[in-house]
Amino acid sequence: MAMTISVVVMAMIQKLKTLSFITKEEHIFLLNFILSFLIGIPFSVTFFDTSIINGIWISLFSFIGAPSIYSILKNQKIINYKPTSLDDKLTETSQEVTDQKNEEITSENE
Q: Which label site among 3, 41, 58, 77 has the fewest CB atoms less than 10 Å from its CB?
């Protein structure tokens, strides 16, 4: 159970790391702690029919496990997460996407 919650928490932390106010390791540590308990307790109680006490324990193990899972996956090069900033330009404009869709529809109709 804690492994499942750790994966969810890890993914959320990676998404939230791109926010401008998360600049230090302490912020990430605090974010990990808060998300582990905010997600872990309701998740374990809802989906695994555990008590709240067991949900707290599961959340604690999730808090310990999420950074470990991330570092293991990163060291094995299973994930190559590179956060993008808001300044990065999109590779395709909306007009290019629309043109591609129109070409696909035209080619399907022929």
A: 77
